[in-house]
UniProtKB/TrEMBL annotation:
<dbReference type="InterPro" id="IPR028090">
    <property type="entry name" value="JAB_dom_prok"/>
</dbReference>
<protein>
    <submittedName>
        <fullName>M67 family metallopeptidase</fullName>
    </submittedName>
</protein>
<keyword id="KW-0479">Metal-binding</keyword>
<keyword id="KW-0482">Metalloprotease</keyword>
<keyword id="KW-0862">Zinc</keyword>
<dbReference type="InterPro" id="IPR000555">
    <property type="entry name" value="JAMM/MPN+_dom"/>
</dbReference>
<dbReference type="Pfam" id="PF14464">
    <property type="entry name" value="Prok-JAB"/>
</dbReference>
<dbReference type="InterPro" id="IPR051929">
    <property type="entry name" value="VirAsm_ModProt"/>
</dbReference>
<keyword id="KW-0378">Hydrolase</keyword>
<dbReference type="GO" id="GO:0008270">
    <property type="term" value="F:zinc ion binding"/>
</dbReference>
<feature type="domain" description="MPN">
    <location>
        <begin position="2"/>
        <end position="137"/>
    </location>
</feature>
<dbReference type="GO" id="GO:0008235">
    <property type="term" value="F:metalloexopeptidase activity"/>
</dbReference>
<dbReference type="GO" id="GO:0006508">
    <property type="term" value="P:proteolysis"/>
</dbReference>
<keyword id="KW-0645">Protease</keyword>
<dbReference type="InterPro" id="IPR037518">
    <property type="entry name" value="MPN"/>
</dbReference>
Length: 137
Protein backbone atom coordinates (compact mmCIF):
# COMPACT_ATOMS: atom_id res chain seq x y z
CA UNK A 1 0.00 0.00 0.00
CA UNK A 2 1.22 3.49 -0.93
CA UNK A 3 0.03 6.93 0.03
CA UNK A 4 0.73 9.66 -2.53
CA UNK A 5 1.44 13.10 -1.12
CA UNK A 6 1.93 16.08 -3.45
CA UNK A 7 4.94 18.31 -2.71
CA UNK A 8 2.71 21.23 -1.75
CA UNK A 9 0.80 19.23 0.88
CA UNK A 10 4.07 17.81 2.20
CA UNK A 11 5.40 21.34 2.61
CA UNK A 12 2.25 22.52 4.40
CA UNK A 13 2.29 19.47 6.67
CA UNK A 14 5.96 19.82 7.64
CA UNK A 15 5.72 23.54 8.31
CA UNK A 16 2.65 23.05 10.51
CA UNK A 17 4.38 20.30 12.49
CA UNK A 18 7.55 22.40 12.82
CA UNK A 19 5.57 25.38 14.07
CA UNK A 20 4.13 23.19 16.81
CA UNK A 21 7.54 22.39 18.32
CA UNK A 22 8.53 21.76 21.06
CA UNK A 23 5.07 20.20 21.41
CA UNK A 24 3.61 17.40 19.38
CA UNK A 25 1.52 18.78 16.55
CA UNK A 26 -1.20 17.04 14.58
CA UNK A 27 -3.26 17.17 11.45
CA UNK A 28 -5.40 15.30 8.98
CA UNK A 29 -4.86 14.39 5.33
CA UNK A 30 -7.84 14.13 3.02
CA UNK A 31 -8.15 13.06 -0.59
CA UNK A 32 -9.34 10.22 -2.75
CA UNK A 33 -8.94 6.47 -2.95
CA UNK A 34 -9.07 4.81 -6.36
CA UNK A 35 -8.34 1.12 -6.60
CA UNK A 36 -4.96 0.84 -4.88
CA UNK A 37 -4.07 4.51 -5.05
CA UNK A 38 -4.46 6.65 -1.98
CA UNK A 39 -4.01 10.22 -3.20
CA UNK A 40 -3.76 13.14 -0.79
CA UNK A 41 -5.36 16.40 -1.92
CA UNK A 42 -5.43 18.50 1.23
CA UNK A 43 -3.69 18.90 4.58
CA UNK A 44 -5.50 20.27 7.61
CA UNK A 45 -3.40 21.46 10.52
CA UNK A 46 -5.20 20.68 13.78
CA UNK A 47 -4.54 22.09 17.23
CA UNK A 48 -3.07 19.84 19.87
CA UNK A 49 -5.27 20.63 22.84
CA UNK A 50 -2.92 18.68 25.14
CA UNK A 51 -0.11 21.19 24.42
CA UNK A 52 2.37 18.47 25.30
CA UNK A 53 5.63 17.19 23.81
CA UNK A 54 4.59 13.56 24.37
CA UNK A 55 0.82 13.50 23.75
CA UNK A 56 -1.71 14.95 21.39
CA UNK A 57 -5.47 15.24 21.24
CA UNK A 58 -7.48 16.96 18.58
CA UNK A 59 -10.23 19.36 19.48
CA UNK A 60 -13.55 17.58 18.85
CA UNK A 61 -15.26 20.67 17.46
CA UNK A 62 -12.40 21.50 15.10
CA UNK A 63 -12.33 17.88 13.98
CA UNK A 64 -16.07 17.92 13.33
CA UNK A 65 -15.79 21.10 11.22
CA UNK A 66 -12.89 19.67 9.19
CA UNK A 67 -14.72 16.37 8.59
CA UNK A 68 -17.66 18.36 7.26
CA UNK A 69 -15.39 20.30 4.91
CA UNK A 70 -13.74 17.08 3.72
CA UNK A 71 -17.14 15.61 2.84
CA UNK A 72 -18.25 18.82 1.12
CA UNK A 73 -15.12 18.72 -1.06
CA UNK A 74 -15.98 15.17 -2.07
CA UNK A 75 -12.88 13.85 -0.33
CA UNK A 76 -12.44 11.30 2.39
CA UNK A 77 -10.27 11.19 5.47
CA UNK A 78 -7.10 9.30 4.52
CA UNK A 79 -4.63 9.83 7.32
CA UNK A 80 -4.06 11.10 10.80
CA UNK A 81 -0.73 12.91 11.21
CA UNK A 82 1.29 13.79 14.29
CA UNK A 83 4.84 14.65 15.23
CA UNK A 84 7.29 13.09 17.65
CA UNK A 85 9.56 15.96 18.74
CA UNK A 86 12.09 13.75 20.56
CA UNK A 87 11.40 10.15 19.56
CA UNK A 88 11.50 7.97 16.44
CA UNK A 89 8.82 8.00 13.73
CA UNK A 90 7.23 4.85 15.12
CA UNK A 91 3.86 4.40 16.82
CA UNK A 92 4.16 4.51 20.61
CA UNK A 93 2.12 2.12 22.75
CA UNK A 94 -0.29 4.98 23.31
CA UNK A 95 -0.50 5.68 19.56
CA UNK A 96 -1.51 2.06 19.00
CA UNK A 97 -4.04 2.12 21.77
CA UNK A 98 -5.62 5.29 20.39
CA UNK A 99 -5.64 4.10 16.76
CA UNK A 100 -9.37 3.53 16.74
CA UNK A 101 -9.66 3.58 12.92
CA UNK A 102 -8.11 0.57 11.13
CA UNK A 103 -9.22 2.07 7.81
CA UNK A 104 -6.96 5.10 7.83
CA UNK A 105 -3.22 5.62 7.71
CA UNK A 106 -1.20 6.97 10.62
CA UNK A 107 1.66 9.29 9.66
CA UNK A 108 4.33 10.11 12.18
CA UNK A 109 6.98 12.77 11.67
CA UNK A 110 10.04 12.62 13.89
CA UNK A 111 12.15 15.69 14.59
CA UNK A 112 14.74 13.85 16.62
CA UNK A 113 17.33 13.93 13.80
CA UNK A 114 18.55 16.98 11.94
CA UNK A 115 16.13 16.33 9.07
CA UNK A 116 12.49 15.38 9.66
CA UNK A 117 11.69 11.69 9.12
CA UNK A 118 8.13 10.84 8.05
CA UNK A 119 6.77 7.31 8.15
CA UNK A 120 3.32 5.89 7.52
CA UNK A 121 1.53 2.93 9.08
CA UNK A 122 -1.70 1.06 9.29
CA UNK A 123 -2.65 -0.04 12.77
CA UNK A 124 -5.08 -2.94 12.94
CA UNK A 125 -7.10 -3.72 16.05
CA UNK A 126 -5.06 -1.15 17.96
CA UNK A 127 -2.01 -3.40 18.01
CA UNK A 128 -0.82 -4.84 14.68
CA UNK A 129 1.33 -2.33 12.84
CA UNK A 130 2.23 -2.53 9.16
CA UNK A 131 4.26 -0.04 7.16
CA UNK A 132 2.80 1.98 4.31
CA UNK A 133 5.09 3.54 1.73
CA UNK A 134 4.95 7.23 0.98
CA UNK A 135 5.34 8.59 -2.51
CA UNK A 136 5.93 12.33 -2.86
CA UNK A 137 4.98 13.79 -6.21
ZN1 LIG B 1 2.91 9.32 18.76
Amino acid sequence: MTIQIPKQQKKEMLSWLLEGLPNEACGLLAGVRQDNAIAVKKFYGMHNVDESSTHFSMDAREQFAVMKEIRENGYMLLANVHSHPDTKAEPSEEDKRLAYDSGIIYLICSFMEKEPVVKAYRIIDRKRVSKVSIQYE
